Amino acid sequence: MSRRKPSKIDWSHGPVQCVAQGCTTMLRPNNQRAEGQWADTVQHKGHGMCFKHWQADIAEEKLSERLRTRSGSPEMRIRGSAAAVFWPLPAEGTWLGREKRDLESWARTELERLSYRVMGRAVFTVHHGRTPFISAILRVRDIPLHRFSRATRTAVAAA
After folding, report:
1. How many C-beta atoms surround the C-beta of residue 135 within 10 A?
2. Per-residue pLDDT tens for 12-30?
3. How far apart are CA 119 and CA 86, in angstroms?
4. Where are the chain's structural domains?
5. How far is 27 from 39, CA to CA, in rounded Å?
6. Edge-to-edge, what's the strand order for the sheet holding 116-127?
7. Separation between Cα atoms, residue 71 and residue 87, nearest integer Å
8. N or C: the chain end with fewer CB closer than 10 Å?
9. Cα–Cα distance for residue pair 128/76, rounded to 1 Å
10. What is the rounded average pLDDT of the residues 119-123?
11. What global pTM score does this model have?
């Protein structure tokens, strides 16, 4: 769900439908009771949505503000000789050993692609809470350009 531009709702024709996709709930103004033409309706909460979808929209917006980069894919930051990788965990639970192995494999592949060499094993920390994730710290080192193959040097020089 995404927030739509606030616009005035024309209540003169009676109840309106919730704007959330697939919702068939009919809405009434906040200042009206469920009587007469407003029977079998629920109060309009905001942005043309019923309370259920308005609340979900607000929660989605807050989550995206806090964790804009966490969309189920890992995030990596490299500073100096350390690479920090953040790997989101599914809410329904998982096998941590498998997740750690997948995280290390992904991180090593990405670091090699970025011309870094991983030195030693990763140090993992599991973060619990509302949005669980695993963080891993890997010691890295730049691969000097003269260690690349001739084809790779040509591709790097062309780019």
Report:
1. 16
2. 888 988 888 888 889 988 8
3. 18
4. 16-68, 71-149
5. 10
6. 75-79, 82-88, 133-142, 116-127
7. 10
8. C
9. 19
10. 87
11. 0.44
